[in-house]
Amino acid sequence: MSTKGLYGNFGGRYVAEILRKPVLELEEAFEGWKDDSDFKAEFDRYANEFIGRPTPLMYADNLSRQIGGAQIYVKMEGLAHTGAHKINNALGQALLARRMGKTRIIAETGAGQHGVATAAVCAKLGFDCTVYMGTVDIRRQRPNVFWMELFGARVVPVASGARTLKDAVNEALRDWSANFTDTHYLIGSALGPHPYPAMVKEYQSVIGRETALQMSERDLNVEALIACVGGGSNSIGFFAPFIESSEPRLIGVEAAGLGLETGAHAARMTGSGGREGIIQGYKSLFLTDNNGQVLSTHSISAGLDYPGIGPELAHLGKAGRIEFASATDTEALEAVKAFARYEGVIFALESAHAGAEAIKLATKLPKDKALIVNMSGRGDKDLFISAGALAGPSWKEFLAREAEGEAGDE
């Protein structure tokens, strides 16, 4: 165990002996290139030309008028290439891996956006790419599997455990243990052993830096920044430049699933909350039973359906700098409908949890205040879930007709 990368009582590096060498190699490379001007210039060039940065800050004027409270703004991270913030970190780590002489990249994915981003970056930079994904997530995020494979990635189904993100992480760790000589493990969330939480925060902080500049340019009176929290990559990057200040309020929104009282959720910081534990190489708060075994989680959004939370977020939550709230599946779907109806924007189901909190909070604030929601991804990937929930029988009838047509063509 190492004490490096500790955030209060959380974080650190707890890895098996076989992974000690690649983790130390990665830490040395990250620290060596983090402030290098050539590395930063290369990142910025790809960020502009490949990702499409900066992403806009959109004033949700119609929805704000409809609500009648604070003015809601949306950081349109879903307009980044591949449809989510995940591409920022994928680019940063891939550029670092190239400097380390790696030729192969592996990743795991839940909602699929990290997998798509990693596959796209690997195609652009010429890496061999393998993505581990639980079979439950493959079923509910099938469009993203198609895109990953089109980019040339090999998507490996994981059928162990709950067949979701945590099980995919375990398989990726096994792969890395056997192949670290030529392989970089590109973790997509701000968790895992040090230096991953720091590294993901560094590459995602571009979201917060752009937001700070856009706030200043518009002279906004911002009450709060609001982001969804699964592992926490979009929220820690969004909040990064503001953590050392006392303002604005920073609000992370977890998945309350079917309701905190039902036990079918993924809320580690709200409700009865998570317990301290050391899982998958880091210490944080996890949903576990009395014996320390990881509990099953539930969320309509695959990206929030994870039992742990990034260690810095857990620390900042305990310290009071970040407030935590939660939104149910139903509230997230209602937020998807509201932003689509009044703003012509389709939130990813993950981001819609933050959107739901913004709608609730705006009603309690005066009109001269502003709230900024990070739309960390757009909702194209959730079509089969959102349409199934919102369109009713007509969507299922459409799918049945399509399946019947496909069978008839064989």
UniProtKB/TrEMBL annotation:
<protein>
    <recommendedName>
        <fullName>Tryptophan synthase beta chain</fullName>
        <ecNumber>4.2.1.20</ecNumber>
    </recommendedName>
</protein>
<dbReference type="InterPro" id="IPR001926">
    <property type="entry name" value="TrpB-like_PALP"/>
</dbReference>
<keyword id="KW-0663">Pyridoxal phosphate</keyword>
<dbReference type="GO" id="GO:0005737">
    <property type="term" value="C:cytoplasm"/>
</dbReference>
<comment type="subunit">
    <text>Tetramer of two alpha and two beta chains.</text>
</comment>
<keyword id="KW-0057">Aromatic amino acid biosynthesis</keyword>
<keyword id="KW-0822">Tryptophan biosynthesis</keyword>
<comment type="pathway">
    <text>Amino-acid biosynthesis; L-tryptophan biosynthesis; L-tryptophan from chorismate: step 5/5.</text>
</comment>
<dbReference type="InterPro" id="IPR036052">
    <property type="entry name" value="TrpB-like_PALP_sf"/>
</dbReference>
<dbReference type="Pfam" id="PF00291">
    <property type="entry name" value="PALP"/>
</dbReference>
<comment type="function">
    <text>The beta subunit is responsible for the synthesis of L-tryptophan from indole and L-serine.</text>
</comment>
<feature type="domain" description="Tryptophan synthase beta chain-like PALP">
    <location>
        <begin position="52"/>
        <end position="375"/>
    </location>
</feature>
<keyword id="KW-0028">Amino-acid biosynthesis</keyword>
<dbReference type="InterPro" id="IPR006654">
    <property type="entry name" value="Trp_synth_beta"/>
</dbReference>
<keyword id="KW-0456">Lyase</keyword>
<dbReference type="GO" id="GO:0004834">
    <property type="term" value="F:tryptophan synthase activity"/>
</dbReference>
<comment type="similarity">
    <text>Belongs to the TrpB family.</text>
</comment>
<dbReference type="InterPro" id="IPR023026">
    <property type="entry name" value="Trp_synth_beta/beta-like"/>
</dbReference>
<dbReference type="InterPro" id="IPR006653">
    <property type="entry name" value="Trp_synth_b_CS"/>
</dbReference>
<feature type="modified residue" description="N6-(pyridoxal phosphate)lysine">
    <location>
        <position position="86"/>
    </location>
</feature>
